[in-house]
Amino acid sequence: MDPELYEPAPRSAWPTVIGVICIVLASLGLLCYGCNSASTILQPMVIAAMPADQRPPTPQGAQLVYQVIALCASFLLSIWLLIAGIGLCRRRSWSRAWCLGWAWLKILLSVVSTAVGFLFAGALAQQVNDQLARQPGGAPFTLTKEIFIVFFIITLVWNLIWPVFIIGWFSRARVKEEVAAWAEETAMMI
After folding, report:
1. Structural domain boundaries of the chain?
2. pLDDT tens digits, residue range 46-72?
3. Rounded Cα–Cα distance for residues 135 and 131 (Å)
4. Residue 63 and residue 41: Cα distance in Å, rounded?
5. Which residues have CB under 8 Å from 91's CB, separation 6+?
6. First CA to last CA across the chain, in angstroms?
């Protein structure tokens, strides 16, 4: 008998590759959004201890509330992506739905954040320009609302790369079939 007939077909590598990328991006998100969330929440107390002429510009009112909500939501989405990435590496059939859910929510949060950024662009430019004007010798340049709008658009494009890839990848018929086979494998093990 030929031993090659009894060897199982090699498993595809994409679940591990995409799962590891999800885990790495989620870990970076947990670190960045976690630190930024804590920093934004604690910032008013820290700034109150600084001399008035050295205080950096800080968001106020609705801008501050939105920033805290967006950072905390991004932190929770990072947890979601981490779970989805681990499930993908373990070839769990539910991981496809989790990845797609994460991608759609990330797109929604990114678009909303960009729209809110457009609303606050003028206030942000004014805050930064006021801070630069207080520096010794003044500021050698002035930031405009348009600079912030360009920055928000670049950030939106950057934030959409992975979610759009995830939606495109998991929408492929071959990938759907392979993920469905994982559920059958899991059921046979039980």
Report:
1. 16-189
2. 777 877 767 776 767 788 888 889 999
3. 7
4. 13
5. 15, 182, 185
6. 31
